[in-house]
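Thread title: Can someone regenerate the structure for this chain?

I was given the following input by a collaborator and told the matching structure tokens would be attached. They weren't. Posting the sequence so someone can regenerate them.
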Amino acid sequence: MKRLLAYLLCATLFIVLQATVFPLIVGTSLQPNLLLLLVLYLGLYEKSLFGAFTSWLLGCMLDVFSGTTLGLYGMIMLLTFCITCVGSRKLNFDSDIVIFVTTLIGTAIHAILLILMLIIFATAQRSWCCVLPYLPVHLLVNQLAVLILLPLVHVINKRRKPNPATSRGDCAWL
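Best answer:
Regenerated them for you:
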């Protein structure tokens, strides 16, 4: 319960930064998707059920604060978590390269899922054109955000107590 509360507080801070502070400082096209980075962290380091529920909840929070369609980002964040969880089963988490590669792939997956959801559910034709031109910028900006947040990830991972019951081999249900 304490972990869930910590993730929700962190997500609230990230949403406030994304929705109010970053657009004023760098504009809407150059802001990192901090909530996506949190979901990718969940996919790498948390258990499946807890991480899936938390990812869905974080996406729903994003929908409530800044979305237009309730449930869109909840579904996208949940699917992004599931793909990250399944894809990270055999990775070596001692290397920082894993976090950068996961961010690169996760940002692309997030954009692809958003495009697919817009194609399926949007009434306007060619609404995916709003996402695709900004993908290279988002890939770069999210990488820079990870570079800045990487020392924090190391501190958090050192404070985590290893528990054999919470090993990362628990994505079999996906």
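Helices lie at 2-25, 34-45, 48-66, 72-87, 97-121, 135-159.
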